[in-house]
Amino acid sequence: MPIQNKQYKAALGLIHASKKVLITTHLRPDGDACGCVRAMTEGLRAAGKDVRRLLLSPLSSWYEAMFEHKIPVLGNDIKKEHLPEKFADIDLIIIVDTNSLVQLPGLEDWLKTARAAGKKILVIDHHVTNDGLGDIELIDAAASAAGEIIYDFFKAVGWAITPAVAEAIFIAISTDTGWFKYGNADSRIFHTAADLIQAGAKPNEIYRRMYQSFTPSRLKLMTRMLDHLELHDNGRIATQYILRKDFDETGSSGPDTENLIDECQRIQTVDIAVLFVELSDGKFRCSLRSKGNIDVRKVAQKFGGGGHTLASGVNLQGPLDIAKASILAEIRAQL
Ligand SMILES: [Mn+2]
């Protein structure tokens, strides 16, 4: 159901009632997450709010440039046990692009105590998976990106779409639609994109920064992944993996895996793409993509993960062979 105008007004009421706002987003922030954090920062500062931000994992280099200075990362720059004192004076927490505790590791306890202490939480999200974390939630599962909801929010409450806001939201919507080529790239997103270009977003510059900014290490990591490509079920399912040693030997790191899963979808027969990335704790991050014939969220959900119909993810225990067999079995059950 589309978000009602009165919900936007209620969210604005929460913002007006606060002075110091903390914005955060999910683990492994993507373009949508970063674009939302940036756009909300701009809007809130223009509204006279004191804005602070916290990330749950480091940004990839191509998103770092979106922010005027480095945003602290939980675990690296701020210890979990210091959250209460660090953010004691925050009165509003805004969570963008997720509403799930599994996507906010390290924040669970603090969110609970913060809420009990009277801090308010505003959630802006477009995922179906939902822990109901907010006092007010702007949730639109039909939105292709959380940035789309942020755009509607700005319009509904009369906040200015400055060139900086336009750029941030354009990054959010373009990256979450795979540069307007996934199944979620509907007419609404193209209308929004047109408005944002009108407001100052420069697609060619953004494209270069987001998609033509590989380091040689990242390209080498991609070739490793492609070397590990296997096709199953007459080419309908593609599996790939990246191990810790692939990162070490190519000089790349976790954020470099972003979007690499899409490469194998160039193969005509491939309907479902799966990428396993070995994590530092020995588990595997399994990402799933579908061209549309199967709902990969259902596959991820079977193992406790979540996401969207065409893009989902879940963390699995190793070893890789077992993880792969379980995922393949579940995909076949869904087909
Ligand atoms: Mn998103």
Main β-sheet description? 6 strands, mixed
β-sheet strand percentage: 15-25%
What small ligands are held by the chains? manganese (II) ion
Number of domains: 2
Task: Please give the number of β-strands.
Answer: 11
What is the CATH third-level topology name of the largest domain? inorganic pyrophosphatase (n-terminal core)
- Number of alpha- plus pi-helical segments: 13
* Cα radius of gyration in angstroms: 20 Å
Top CATH class of the largest domain:
Alpha Beta
Briefly say what this structure is.
The chain is of the alpha/beta class. The protein has 13 helices and eleven strands. The strands form two sheets. The protein has a six-stranded mixed β-sheet with strand order 6-7-8-9-11-10, with helices on both faces. It has a five-stranded parallel β-sheet with strand order 2-1-3-4-5.
Structure description:
This protein has 2 domains: 5-210, inorganic pyrophosphatase (n-terminal core); 217-334, Roll (Diaminopimelate Epimerase, Chain A, domain 1), CATH 3.10.310. It has helices at residues 5-16, 31-46, 61-64, 83-86, 108-116, 146-157, 163-176, 187-198, 203-211, 216-227, 244-250, 296-302, 320-334, and strands at 20-25, 50-54, 92-96, 120-125, 136-139, 230-232, 237-242, 272-278, 284-290, 306-307, 311-316. The strands form 2 sheets. It has a 6-stranded mixed beta sheet with strand order 6-7-8-9-11-10, with helices on both faces. Strands 2-1-3-4-5 form a 5-stranded parallel beta sheet. The longest helix is centred in the N-terminal third of the chain and has 16 residues, at 31-46. Helix 2 packs antiparallel against helix 7 (163-176). 41% of the residues are buried. 40% of the residues lie in helices and 17% in strands. Helix 2 (31-46) links the parallel strand 1 (20-25) and strand 2. It is an alpha/beta fold and 335 residues long. It starts with a helix and ends with a helix. It has 13 helices and 11 strands. The model has no long low-confidence stretch (mean pLDDT 96). Residues 32, 97, 126, 145-146, 176 line the site of manganese (II) ion.
